[in-house]
Amino acid sequence: MIKKLSLCALSVLxxxxxxxxxxxADGDMQLQQVLMFSRHNLRAPLADNGSVLEQSTKKxxxxxxxxxxxxxxxxxxxxxxMGNYTRQWLAQQGLVQNGSCPDSSNVxxxxxxxxxxxxxxxxxxxxAFPGCDIAVTHQDAMGTMDPVFNPVITDDSEAFNKKALAAxxxxxxxxxxxxxxxxxxxxxxxxxxxxxxxxKQCDLASxxxxxxxxxxxxxxxxxxxxxxxxxMDAFTLQYYEGFPLEQVAWGQIKTxxxxxxxxxIKNGYQDALFTSPDVAREVTAPxxxxxRSQLVDQDKANAPKITLxxxxxxxxxxxxxxxxxxxxxxxxxxxxxxxxxxxVFERWHDAKNNKDLLKLEYVYQTADQLRDGEVLSxxxxxxxVTLQLAGCPTDGxxxxxxxxxxxxxxxxxxxxxxxxxxxxxxxxxxxxxxxxSADKAAADKAAADKATADKAAAEKAAAEKAAAxKAAxxxxAEEKxxxAEEKxxVERAAAxKAAAEKAAADKAAADKADADKPADAPAQKPVESAQNSDAKQTVTQ
Length: 541
Known about the structure:
Order of helices and strands: EEHHEHEHHEEHHHEHEEHEEHHH
Number of strands: 11
Pfam family, one: His_Phos_2
CATH architecture of the domain at 2-158 and 271-412: 3-Layer(aba) Sandwich
Family: Belongs to the histidine acid phosphatase family.
Largest sheet: 9 strands, mixed
Helix content: 40-55%
Mean pLDDT: 83
CATH superfamily of the domain at 2-158 and 271-412: Phosphoglycerate mutase-like
GO cellular component, one term: outer membrane-bounded periplasmic space
Shape: globular
Keywords: Signal
Distance between the termini: 45 Å
Region (Disordered): 458-541
């Protein structure tokens, strides 16, 4: 069962061509569809105190306000800023209108079923579409990985296992991390750490890494690379969260050069585990297949204009590798997959040439924007870096053919169980009937595609109707409870007032009786009525 909860979208500019088929000028380019795949925003370290972190040093770690792995309050604020900027950008491109909520059928949000991913999606919606009825779709079972976002190995063959281990080992050997690990070793004083336990030789720079590629599990490694990744993840998050600099790595990372050198450990960990081609295609196949279903299989006229997916850095790293994205540089950040960053797939329509084009951008907040909590806007935007796919040559403005992008998606699924079925060759083509058969096959495919799209649209409409009905029922129940509470409050106030007035009247009557009595008459105690007694008891309750 999929549960719904909240969303938004993104994209880019247009211009003239260089190096491939000429595209239209700005006025002829129209953004038609956007799919954003976002890494969750700022969280507490996954390696919580008491685990890898405390085993790696005797030094005391600063305390976080949320449990390990959960989105922090600041992470929510940063995501609101990203959502607000995105809304401005989408309005600038004409995909949404400022001052009004988009139609719910035009926006779809889907998050992995962990706290940090669902919360990121919710905060994004609050920034992009405040007060709008937009839900976040996720699995009911919170705290478990959704298969679409779960980068696990599903090939249990010995041949794949050997190939994966060889690929990960080869990636690791290319990293040349010894100088960075030596520096990290000194920062944490690793030789004195509990993990060393008085061992004669114990340091991060000379230890061995052992990789694993088990069926049903994520690619993994034990050894200095994993320890170093956990430590640098914690230091990076401390910086973003805004801890005092003397608490960030105990004040021992002081320069951008140090950050860049040490961050190579965290980036290298990701590269070794998730970016070798065979492993990347294996672990990201469900995600590629889902993106393909949203951007290619669905009829463009019925597909959501704006889709947001929220997952993890491992998703982005493996996705970029599977799609054969060329090497890229992200200015003003140390991470290859920045926290809160988005891969933005944009479908543009070239009206002059009547064709669709793809633009793929990495949109992310810089390290300083994250630490300083800067409000984002069109005047103070996040960074936007255009990416290039090896199989989809771009013009000077970053556009490539939509057909070639579709081929790149299909190529990323080759060799996996989700690879698209090959189109059968018409038997009568040899007899001169090829064109007729091709037309029939195309018509059959169009009919099948329409049926699939109609079914998907009907299912989505039913799910949205159920979610809206559930939300309406919850709202009605809330309003009913509130009304009952207000009624009880009014009744309590009335009872208190009546009791006070009755007590005052009784006292006045008693005083008058005392005044009217003969001077020598014995004083009598006023009799308190049962009604007054009940009133006082009500006030006490």
